[in-house]
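Section: protein folds

Sequence with per-residue tokens
===
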Amino acid sequence: MTTTATGTIQLTDRSPELSGAEMVAALVPPPQFAAATFESYRADAQFASQQEAKDLLMLFAGARTVERTGFFRRAKRAPEVKPGVYLDGGFGVGKTHLLAAIYHAMPARRKYFGSFIEYTALVGSMGYQNTVELFRGADLLCIDEFELDDPGDTMVMTRLLGELVASGTRLAATSNTPPNALGEGRFAAQDFLREIHAMSASFQTIRIDGTDYRHRAVDGHADVLDAEGYAASLASTADHALVSDDDFDLLITHLSRVHPSRYIRLLESVDVVGLRDVHPFDDQSAALRFVAFIDRVYDAQIPIRATGVSLDLVFPEEMLAGGYRKKYLRAISRLVASTLA
């Protein structure tokens, strides 16, 4: 990232706005995956499903062909049974890399790539019908981190995807949860089974097994600095880059006033994120906002410097035992990687 500013700022002083047009323009792979390809995806030889998934997705994206057997052999695309692929697997197995590889490889005239929360925010900003018209005729819609945390999102996304599939749009999505289990442990999913099943019927589920690549070489806790080390680290960085320095509680409160779709703008031009006096959460809504914030920090590959409790310990056991367990574990993985960066 090219640095255009230096010094120290507080994220709590920023109140970013994002128009519908700006939200649409941002629907491209994040910087970390701007050059992701199938060739650069390193499948773990210990888990055959990773290479199998890569091969299937190359066919889906048109990056590989299969040959017809017989006297006359010619290349042809594999038959497509469903209009979408759904990458189901744990965190850190390369699902987002493969999703971005699909985006880059597919020779589509109109294609979009965004997190689930960005699409729902766009509907909130532009209205449902305007969003349908915007995406109608698109060749490809990539949806990262697909989660249905409330009934409203379930209804909106199933309707939207249903209309787009009917008009010929192909779909590619990632999640830590199989499509027929979305919403479990979060809300009364049984009340919305029809919608959930209708959505899952549009996808071919591709399972990707493996261990978190961020922990293949690194284990342990997130790095914690004492007050003196923290101040020295930020001061030395601020000489040549832009760093943020925020009290943890004040930042968490501020995140409640900024829609998660705008967190990326909150971090604009920031090279290092500083958090003082980190402590465990006692409110699940605040914890989930922090997860969304860390997703954007990680996507932008911004290192974190922190004091207080180790950041991988901010989610208490009762939260880790609940319906958002996979979200929290993904955030912990990213927090450890970001503090060691």
Remarks:
- The longest strand covers residues 272-278.
- The longest helix spans residues 151-166.
- The domain at 45-210 is CATH 3.40.50.300 (Rossmann fold).
